[in-house]
Amino acid sequence: MSSAMRKAISVGILYGRKPQGSCYKQIFDTEARINVLLEILRAWSPIQPRWGRKMPGCCRISEITRFPPKTTKRRNNHRTERNFIRNGNLPGRSGDWLRLPGLHFPGCRDQRPRTSAWIQAGPLDLIIDCGPDFRQQALRARVPKVDAILLTHEHNDHVSGLDDVRPYNFKSGKDIPIYAEPRVGQEIQKRFEYAFEEVNRYPGAPMLVSLPISASDPFAIGDLSIVPVEVMHGAMPVLGFRFGAFAYVTDMRTISENEMEKLKGVEVLVVNALHFHAHSTHMNVDLALEFIERLAPRQSYLTHISHRMGLYEEINPSLPAHVALGYDGLQFRV
Description:
Layout (H helix, E strand, L loop, with lengths): L2 E2 L25 H15 L37 E5 L1 E2 L26 E6 L2 E5 L5 H8 L6 E3 L5 H4 L6 H7 L3 E5 L1 H10 L16 E5 L6 E3 L2 E10 L2 E8 L2 E4 L7 H7 L4 E5 L12 H11 L3 E5 L1 E2 L5 H4 L7 E3 L5 E2 L2
Parallel strand pairs: 3-15, 5-6, 6-7, 7-8, 12-13, 13-14, 14-16
Antiparallel strand pairs: 1-4, 2-4, 2-17, 4-5, 9-10, 10-11, 11-12
């Protein structure tokens, strides 16, 4: 089975909540609004390297002489032909994401919004997980259509972009099937009830249909066979997916021996590794490398990466030769 995978990342900078400070004072007339906007832009724009030339696509934190205001609120958190759409997980400490250069300079391999994958297999275009960054990811990756969406679990960083699939409904005129475990499907139908309406559906709403799957039963979409793999996200069971010689697993902390058997013989693996520190619900780098060593795939890529992992140019060379960090623009075939 021939496939390729690509990833595109988008990051929001400004948020609706008003930070404290004189330049954010409430204003009522147009001229004052323009002046305040200019103040904000001046406060954000002068991020220059110490060597005094134009900022390259990426740089070290220590080489930046000025950061945006610390008071700005961060955004909360989260590859068969196959495409990484996203590869990261936003950090947990307020303000950290503003201080990392990968979020400011397009082309840097350190941009890490919520994780998703675009799978191209023959005529099929499938999406694994649909987080809050999906719209921008799909635009940048130029995803032409969505034939189905596979959900690993119901956490918001993996599902809250489902509302943004509506342009694909408009283009195809069809419902988009959502493949998920019954628990996940029921939760999605509660959160996006309007998208599953069959009677008196609002004309501009997304059109989704829930199709239950089970970790114990392989299923097919068209001619593509898919094997669900149950892993544990702390105490929560979530699904990974195997497509022939390729497997995608995210948000895993542990896996049973029975489920491990389903992954034997995988040639290319995408698996989560949050950072280097121990975590209660995600694997860190050491656990991910142990998992990869047991499966012995030809190539592995780490996904669902926190910015606390460190910079790509520093971390990637330290990994085994057959393991790499996922990054913007990564593509491969299986």
